[in-house]
Amino acid sequence: MRLTRYSILAGILVTLSALALSCVGQSLPGTSQQAADRMIELLQRKDFTPAIELGTQAVARWPRNPDLQHLLGLAHFQSGALESAVPELTRAALLAPTRADFHYDLGLSLLARKDYSKAADALKKSLQLKPENAVGRILLGRAYLNSNRGVLALEQFRLALTEDPNIPLGHYHLGFAYASLGRTREAIPELRKETELHPENGEAQYQLGHTLLETGEATAAVPVLKKAIALDAGRAEAHYDLGKALAAAGDYKSATEALRQSITLNPDDPSAHYQLARVLEKLGQRDQAQEEFATFARLKKNQPAEGGMASGRVR
User: What is the pLDDT along the chain (315 residues), one digit of tens a residue?
Assistant: First the structure.
């Protein structure tokens, strides 16, 4: 294929651009502070590759400088390279153990990596150094909850709300923690507060509707689940729960529509086929119901024998 003049020029520009970025990393500023300032500039511009190149060389030259180590970790973290971010941020926290922000950023990267136990340790250290951090307490609560320490999570979510009663997701996380501990009656008012403070939060709307349904309040769940769907129509479980709630309220026709939409979005969920079969039986559509029962049995058989919620009880 013949190269056009434009494509040749474009190739030259790309090559020059790559060389320019490479030179950024190869030309170290004269002092560690100048290197840190330059890295901050690059991070603010989201130029992560040259920031990482510069940071790597700066840390090699000034290995005992915690700020450079921290900035290099942030560059990796913001570029999405969690496996590279964690060791750099860990070293920064070891070099400057009294820096609350270093432990906080380490905890955040560990949380993103789903290393919940270590994330909790880092976030706890950060809060010991700087207790007034409502967002930090929310994150610590999440780390506790995801490492099966629900009671400790409740404490952190309550403390976060004491510091900032209107913090986004504060009541949501407290309600979710109550629900995860089986304390659904206590979860409902917290989830309701979240939907009142932040009505655009589709996740909170869904969890409120789901919890109402779980506690037998199907009629109250219907409008909440409809609002959750209006905020996020692609959420299969919201359509599924709406179908269950409508069926429990006796509106079988609308229930079939909701359940069919759930199946459209997630055709491999056996529970949706099972619930649809039961509703079709109520409507006297026995042949269609048997088809759905057969699909349910096939999908259920293909599920893994283990795997928690993925292995699927009939919901």
Answer: 333 333 323 332 333 333 333 333 447 899 999 999 999 999 999 999 999 999 999 999 999 999 999 999 999 999 999 999 999 999 999 999 999 999 999 999 999 999 999 999 999 999 999 999 999 999 999 999 999 999 999 999 999 999 999 999 999 999 999 999 999 999 999 999 999 999 999 999 999 999 999 999 999 999 999 999 999 999 999 999 999 999 999 999 999 999 999 999 999 999 999 999 999 999 999 999 999 999 999 999 887 654 433 334 345
Q: 226-237 in b/e burial notation, b at 16+ Cβ within 10 A?
A: bbbbebeeebbb
Cα dist. 199→54, 169, 193, 231, 234 in Å?
44, 11, 9, 10, 18
What is the number of alpha carbons within 13 Å of residue 216 lying toward its C-beta?
A: 1
Neighbours of 18 (CB within 10 A): 11
Give the C-alpha distances (Å, rounded to integers) separating 226 from 4, 6, 125, 132, 200: 56, 54, 42, 38, 13
- Residue 145: CA atoms inside 13 Å, Cβ hemisphere, count? 20
Cα separation, 154 vs 4, in Å, equals 65
Local structure of 301: helix, strand or coil: helix
- DSSP letter assigned to residue 155: H
Please choose, from the candidates 107, 75, 104, 69, the residue with its C-alpha nearest in 3D space to the C-alpha of residue 88: 69
